[in-house]
């Protein structure tokens, strides 16, 4: 199978932490075994990994008293044998990691059993982040105003600009996180990202989803049942862009710098491919166009790398709980030839959007020397993108 995110071979593992008692949830059984549209929450969580585009070996860390509930919940699923948890979540994760037959370069995703609505696009982004970082923390930026209070009285307003709400899966190379956990023995750390931070690892923030919430109360379970019942809908957006060719020595197309006898004229780097795709993605979620978000009258965007525009569109989709299922870009020009750069363009677009490259297509065509592209006066691009979103009805 093609390695989508790294040139070195690796296997994927998921450690699902299900050893907690869930005292805030209430009810006769722990929340991970409660029913979510007819199945246990844990089963839905495990299936999120088992249905991923690459094989994921899944191990569940359980409470010793829950074996019967576990067996019933995962009946028929091909999971690794479960392992008993420890006194704390940190202990439970370490025991789960130690039970894996994994190599140091393999990737392990540590996930809460009570987050059953995990989207594959989140997994894509988390794995992709390991190309440049030691660890990936799925998180959501704080949008609400945050207050600090004492004795029921507000005493301060907290600056939320750099605050994020941590989610899971938290993703690592196996060797690094295993060593970090052994080094953290005896400490009381709240999550695996904190274990990684303690070990001096670089932890990259990866956009999560509001739907990837943790079931903590009965109201949370009701919300999850509503979302599962609602299902998803698919939307398609299209984009088109043109830039004039002027005197220069290179062009930017689909995030790749190509030596050329001219350059494209624009307020930013004039990348027609990324501009068209950005508009297609924004259109799919009804978020206007690139000019609404990055006005050409704003000096901040003079000469800007268009990857920032595309990444912004991807983040907006993720915040809505959406997934980019496919995007297709067609470049229209006589020169330069796109074919030699097609693979690099696919890879670059996938990196920017933090999706699997199999979800990206790049094509090229000419106008048989007709029109402005035929006269080599400019380059055009058109794009179509399909996005999966939680259904509105």
Notable traits:
disordered N terminus, seven-stranded mixed beta sheet, 393 residues, single chain, 60s Ribosomal Protein L30, Chain: A, Spore Coat Polysaccharide Biosynthesis Protein SpsA, Chain A, 29% helix, elongated, alpha/beta, five-stranded mixed beta sheet
Give a concise summary.
This protein is an alpha/beta fold and 393 residues long.
Describe the structure.
By secondary structure, this protein is of the alpha/beta class. It folds into two domains: 12-230, Spore Coat Polysaccharide Biosynthesis Protein SpsA, Chain A; 233-390, 60s Ribosomal Protein L30, Chain: A. It has helices spanning 41-50, 67-73, 89-98, 120-129, 174-183, 192-198, 218-230, 272-284, 290-293, 307-319, 342-353, 371-374, and strands at residues 12-18, 35-36, 39-40, 56-62, 83-84, 107-112, 135-141, 146-150, 153-158, 164-173, 203-207, 232-247, 250-253, 256-259, 262-264, 323-332, 360-365, 378-390. The strands form five sheets. It has a seven-stranded mixed beta sheet with strand order 5-4-1-6-10-7-11, sandwiched between helices. Helix 8 packs parallel to helix 10 (307-319). The longest helix is centred in the middle third of the chain and has 13 residues, at 218-230. The radius of gyration is 23 Å and the shape is elongated. Mean pLDDT is 92; it is low at 1-7.
């Amino acid at each position: 199978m093609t390695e989508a995110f790294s040139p070195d071979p690796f296997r994927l593992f998921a450690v699902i932490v299900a050893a907690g008692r869930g005292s805030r949830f209430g009810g006769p059984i722990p929340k991970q075994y409660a029913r979510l549209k007819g199945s246990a929450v844990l089963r839905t969580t495990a299936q999120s990994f088992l249905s991923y585009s690459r094989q994921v070996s899944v191990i569940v860390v359980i409470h010793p008293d829950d074996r019967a509930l576990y067996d019933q919940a995962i009946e028929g699923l091909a999971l690794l044998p479960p392992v008993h948890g420890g006194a704390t979540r940190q202990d439970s994760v370490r025991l789960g990691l130690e039970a894996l037959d994994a190599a140091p370069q393999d990737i392990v995703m540590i996930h809460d059993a009570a987050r059953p609505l995990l989207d594959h696009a989140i997994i894509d982004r988390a794995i992709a982040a390991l190309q440049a970082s030691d660890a990936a923390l799925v998180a959501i930026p704080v949008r609400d105003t945050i207050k600090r209070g004492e004795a029921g009285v507000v005493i301060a307003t907290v600056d939320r600009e750099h605050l994020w709400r941590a989610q899971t899966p938290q993703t690592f190379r196996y060797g690094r996180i295993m060593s970090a956990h052994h080094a953290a023995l005896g400490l009381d750390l709240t999550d695996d990202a904190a274990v990684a931070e303690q070990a001096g690892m670089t932890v990259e923030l990866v956009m999560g989803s509001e739907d990837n919430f943790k079931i903590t109360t009965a109201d949370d379970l009701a919300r999850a049942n509503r979302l599962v019942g609602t299902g998803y809908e698919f939307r398609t957006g299209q984009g088109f862009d043109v830039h004039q060719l002027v005197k220069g020595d290179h062009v930017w197309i689909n995030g790749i710098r190509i030596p050329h006898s001219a350059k494209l004229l624009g307020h930013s780097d004039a990348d027609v491919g990324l501009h068209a795709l950005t508009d297609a993605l924004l259109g799919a979620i009804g978020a206007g166009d690139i000019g609404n978000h990055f006005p050409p009258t704003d000096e901040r965007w003079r000469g800007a790398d268009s990857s920032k525009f595309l990444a912004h569109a991807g983040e907006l989709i993720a915040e809505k709980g959406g997934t980019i299922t496919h995007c297709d870009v067609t470049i229209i020009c006589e020169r330069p030839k796109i074919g030699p750069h097609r693979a690099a363009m696919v890879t670059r677009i996938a990196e920017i959007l933090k999706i699997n490259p199999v979800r990206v297509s790049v094509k090229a065509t000419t106008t048989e020397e007709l029109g402005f592209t035929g006269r080599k006066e400019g380059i055009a691009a058109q794009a179509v993108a399909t996005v999966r979103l939680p259904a509105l009805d």
